[in-house]
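User: I'm designing a mutation panel for Cytochrome P450 and want to avoid disrupting the core. Could you give me a predicted structure to guide residue selection? Please restate the sequence first so the numbering is unambiguous.

Assistant: Good idea. Sequence first, for numbering, then the predicted C-alpha cells:
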Amino acid sequence: MKPSEPIPLSGTAYKRDPYPLYAQLREAGPVHRVRFPSGVTAWLVTGHEAARQTLADPRLGKNHALGNDGWRARASIMPEPQHSQLQVHLLHQDPPKHTRMRRLITDAFAPRRVEALRPRLTELADALLDALPEDARRADLVACFAARFPFQALAEVIGLPPYLADRFRREWGRVVAPVGPADPGRAAYEALLRELQGYIAEVVADRRAHPGDGLLSRLVAARDADELTQEELDSMVFQLLVAGQEPVTNQITTALVALARHPRALERLCAEPELMPAAVEELLRYDAAFELTTWRFLAEDADLHGRRVPAGDSVIVSLCAANRDPERFPDPDTLDLDRADGSHLAFGHGIHFCPGAALARIELQVALRALLARLPGLRLAVPEDELPWIPAVLGRGVSELPVAFDTPVCPVSPR
C-alpha cells in the first residue's frame, strides 16, 4: 500500500480485534487517513492525549453543514425528508444550539437520579433471567438479556410507557448504519426509517395527550413552549431511542467477552462482587462499545497534531485506540481490575461527553452482577473466533453471545 492511500478499517479480522492495527497507527503518529467499507474517508486520531485535545478542540464542529461535497456524497445519505427531520439532534450540533438542547436532558440522567433507579433496574435484570427455562444451561445472552435490558432501563428513565416500549423494534436501530442509494438493501433501509419515524410521531402524540414527569413529556412540553422546533424534538427522541440503548447492549457483550479472555479476573469478580464499579471502568477502557466517535469538521484548512487537514474533511477519534495507549495506561492490553487510573475515554470528552454515562455505568454494574451471580460457571459456549462481531462502522459488540453455565439459573439472592 502506498503511504498516501487511506488505511482500510474493514474486514472480519479488523472487527474481531482492531487493537493490533491501532497499536501500529499510534506508533506511527497520532493522525492517519483511513477509509471505511462504504468508501467514506476520514482523518483518524489515535493516541490518548491527542484524542483528548481533539475532542475538546473548539475548531472542530459537529454540524453536518460543515462537511464538504465529497463527504456528503458518501456519508450524509439519509433521504429527505427524514434527514432534515431526524438529524438535528445533539450529536450534530455546536454551541450555542447544542448548549440549549443539552440543557433539556441533563437532569434526567444526573447521577443522583439514575442511582435512585438501581433497585428498579435490578428487578428488571432479575426478571429477564427468571424468564429463562428452568432447566436451561445454555443461552444466547444477546437475545435473552443484552438486547432487552438496556431498552427497559432507558424506558424507565425517559418515561416511555410500557404499551409503547413493547412496540419498539430493535431493528429500527439499523437506520444509523450507512446504506447508500445504490445499495441493494436501500429499499428495506428506507422502509425501516419510515416505520421508526411513524413510531416517533406516535410517542410524541401520546406524551402530549398523556403527559407525565418523564424526559419525553418534558421535551414535548419544551416544543409546545417553542423552546424546541419540531425537527429538534423528533431528532432528540430519535437519538434517545436509538443511541440511548444499543451501545449498552454492545458493551455488555464486549465486557463478557473480555472476562472470558481473562478467566482469573472473571473468577475474582464472581468471588468479590464489591469490585464491580471499578471492574466496569476497566472493562469500558479495555474494549469500549463506542469504538469511534461520530464526525467532526474543520471550518477551514488547519493543522491537526502535525497533519494538514482540509476544511470539510471528516475527523474521527478512535476511543478504543486512545484507551489502549501505553503512554497513558501501563500494560494496556491486559484487563487489570486493580488499575487505579480510570481516565478512559469510553464516553468521550468535552462538551459532547455522553450525557447518559451515569446511567450506562449503573446498567453495566447491575447487568454484570446479575449475570455472574445467577449463571454460575458462566463461559462462552462456542470458540471465540466464531462469535459474530457486528459490522457497525463506529461500534463494537457481538450480535449473538452463546454461553453455557453449570446449573440452572440461581434464585435471586437477598439484597
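For picking mutation sites, this is relevant: Residues 7-404 form a domain with the Cytochrome p450 fold (CATH 1.10.630.10). The longest strand covers residues 31-35.
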